[in-house]
Amino acid sequence: MGSWRPVLLLVLAVVLFIAFLAIQIWKPDTATLPMRILKQRTVAASAFFAFTSQAGMIVVTYYIPIFFQALKEFSPTKSGVATIPFILSLVVGTILAGGLVQRIGYPAPFMMIGAVIFSVGVGLVTTWPVGVNHSVWISYQVLIGFGVGIGMQQPSMNAQIVLSKEDNATGISLMMFAQNFGGAIFLSVAQSVFTDELGRQLTKIPGLHLSKSQVVEMGATSIRNMVPQQLVSVFLDGYRIAICNAIYVALGLACFSSVGAVLVEWKSVKKNKNDIALAPGSAAHDKSEEV
């Protein structure tokens, strides 16, 4: 019989979320998240982009080290080192996009390009065989990191462009919340997909007397020691399929992030700066008055 606790928690989560929204609408002056901000198209689309793209990034960066440890026999330390290509390309993408946005002015195209590159990279990761070579797993991680990097800061930039100075802090906080909230939710979803698929794969292996809970609890680095030698290759292929199914969750999120990227308004950060500079009381405005 299933436990009543998860059902109770899910029901409470829905009820409390509805109550939170009702309070935001009922008390707009003291609302934590004013509806006037959330109903702004670019803010809502940017929050959706931040939610989906960062959730996808968390999922894929969680399961890639597990892939290395379980299937490539990497130690936890070595599997962490093996994700350096992702981290470096993420940093490069973030810096490059930041400079180009300041030069070009529009964050929207970088969100679109980032969503496409991210989706392609995650899709390619799902094709990894058990014996994937280093040139493949390095290059695919570079794609993922670069795609995530060039779009990562754009939601916060959009919030600053379209919102008033008084609402900027709230808009940026919303983007940060969306990024973290997405990862918290969908990592659990991916874990559920992984364990369910792993259970199905285990039932296909004759002579293997292991439950999916035993495999999950034993850890990725020690699974080979729990399986008879003659069944290792079949077991590892099943484990690979389970990991790929979990990464499909990240792939779906990466693809959905493009919806948010398409819906944001094409507004320039340069125009926003010019409006502030020419506002009454500013130095530029006073100078123009003198001329």
TrEMBL record:
Domain of life, per lineage: Eukaryota
Topological type in the membrane: Multi-pass membrane protein
Predominant cellular place of this UniProt entry's protein: membrane
Keyword terms of this UniProt record: Membrane, Transmembrane, Transmembrane helix
One GO molecular-function entry: transmembrane transporter activity
Organism whose genome encodes this protein: Didymosphaeria variabile
Presence of keyword Transmembrane helix: yes
Name of the protein in question: MFS general substrate transporter
Compartments (UniProt record): Membrane
Matches recorded under SUPFAM superfamilies: MFS general substrate transporter
One annotated Gene Ontology cellular component of this protein: plasma membrane
Keyword Lipid metabolism on entry: no
InterPro entries: MFS, MFS_trans_sf
Transmembrane segments: 6-26, 47-68, 80-101, 108-128, 134-152, 172-194, 239-264
